[in-house]
TrEMBL record, chain A:
Residues 137-218 form the RCK C-terminal domain. It comes from Mariniplasma anaerobium. Pfam families: TrkA_C, TrkA_N. It comes from the Bacteria. Keywords: Ion transport, Transport. GO terms for biological process: potassium ion transport. This is Trk system potassium uptake protein TrkA. The lineage of its organism: Bacteria, Bacillati, Mycoplasmatota, Mollicutes, Acholeplasmatales. PROSITE patterns: RCK_C, RCK_N. The keyword Ion transport applies.
From TrEMBL, chain B:
It holds the Pfam family TrkA_N. Residues 3-121 form the RCK N-terminal domain. One of its GO terms (biological process) is potassium ion transport. This is RCK N-terminal domain-containing protein. PROSITE patterns: RCK_N. PANTHER family: POTASSIUM CHANNEL PROTEIN 2-RELATED-RELATED. Coiled coil: none annotated. It comes from Mariniplasma anaerobium.
Length: 220, 139
């Protein structure tokens, strides 16, 4: 693929080093002369010094008809102008803008930028995903870490919902010792059905803990 | 929603003078600038609203009645910011009349396919020189 990378510092350097291994045709444009030289020396590749929001810079770098353009500068507005210039004047198929302000993610997409990346936005998403870990409320270590007791919340989209325990192929070293199904506590048998919003109390070994959490939380 | 607001973004020499004149003509003028200090260029006769803030933040634009704008004049000192704001006014808020000042005549290509009108000080100065030069020659 023909890939244009404009602006940015360490993120540009990192992406260049990753993409260079994949043998893409890379066109790198950077306004910061010192950094342009650094990227050039570090990756043994040519870098165009210049402002990518100016059409003649993209033209000199022969960015026409590239498959992808990544705009990584610290200015959201400049990244927008770079992407729109690339699309309108250089027939570049996909444009990707980095933004500092997470509110610009939706706005830039609406104005015609194909992908918009905001670290804050991604961070928020990650935190939202991580918070599902809160469903694993307690890990209780017993007997010098030889066994652990974990509590896992079952969500409606989990694979094990509405199955009988005997029909689920659990990993080895697992014992579901009881199920909290508000307001009841159930001591499970083979024909006990797992339901959404159950809390499973599982006794296992520290080594198998991760595998079990992953297994229980597997989605349909 | 009635569109009756005249919005100026960028209170430099051009923006503040346009805002003052339109205010004198009885328009409902709102002028936005990121720097509080910029409004000193407004004349005594200016009777509109001043908003301090970064117009690239949609919250600031919406608080400045952008949804009720019939005209927006964009005169910040950055061409990139001016084009970005013009695109937001055109594509997001469907403002009927948009004027944007651009230093770089090449940037006008980004306005193709829109109803946004560009003002180029370079072109105006250049043609003024040519006219003055012709007058000299004719004398």
């Amino acid at each position: 693929m023909k890939i244009v990378i404009t602006g940015g510092k360490h993120e540009a350097d990192y992406i260049v080093s990753k993409l260079k291994k994949e043998h893409h045709q890379l066109i790198i444009i950077n306004q910061d002369i010192d950094f342009a030289e650094y990227i050039s020396a570090n990756n043994d590749i040519g870098v165009f010094p210049g402002d990518p929001t100016k059409a003649y810079v993209l033209s000199d770098a022969e960015a026409h008809n590239a498959d992808v353009l990544l705009a990584l500068s610290d200015s959201d507005t400049d990244n927008y102008i770079t992407c729109i210039t690339a699309k309108k004047l250089f027939n570049i198929k996909r444009t990707v803008a980095k933004v500092k302000n997470p509110k610009n993610v939706e706005l830039f997409k609406r104005l015609g930028v194909d992908s918009v990346i905001s670290s804050t936005y991604l961070l928020a998403q990650t935190i939202l995903n991580e918070s599902s870990v809160e469903n694993i409320i307690k890990t209780l270590s017993i007997e010098d870490e030889k066994i652990v007791m974990i509590e896992i919340g079952v969500e409606p989209e989990h694979n094990i919902v509405n199955k009988r325990l005997m029909d689920i192929k659990f990993p080895s070293n697992i014992n579901i010792s009881c199920i909290f199904r508000d307001p009841h506590v159930i001591i499970p048998k083979g024909d006990t059905l797992i339901k959404a919003d159950d809390k499973l109390i599982i006794v296992t070994t520290p080594n198998d803990q991760e595998e079990i959490v992953e297994f229980v939380q597997k989605r349909k | 929603m009635k569109r009756n607001k005249f919005i100026v973004i960028g209170s430099g020499r051009l923006g503040s003078n346009i805002a003052t004149s339109m205010s004198e003509l009885g328009e409902d003028v709102i002028i936005i600038d990121a720097v509080d200090d910029s409004f000193r260029k407004l004349q005594e006769s200016f009777s509109g609203y001043q908003v301090v803030g970064d117009a690239t933040d949609l919250t600031i634009l919406e608080n400045s009645y952008i949804k009720q704008a019939k005209t927006v004049v964009i005169t910040t000192d950055s061409d990139n910011v001016n084009i970005y704001l013009a695109h937001i006014c055109f594509y997001v808020y469907n403002v009927p009349k948009i004027f944007v000042r651009l230093s770089d005549t090449d940037k006008g290509k980004l306005l193709e396919g829109t109803m946004i009108k560009a003002i180029y000080p370079f072109n105006l100065s250049y043609s003024e020189f040519m006219d003055l030069n012709d007058e000299e020659a004719a004398e």
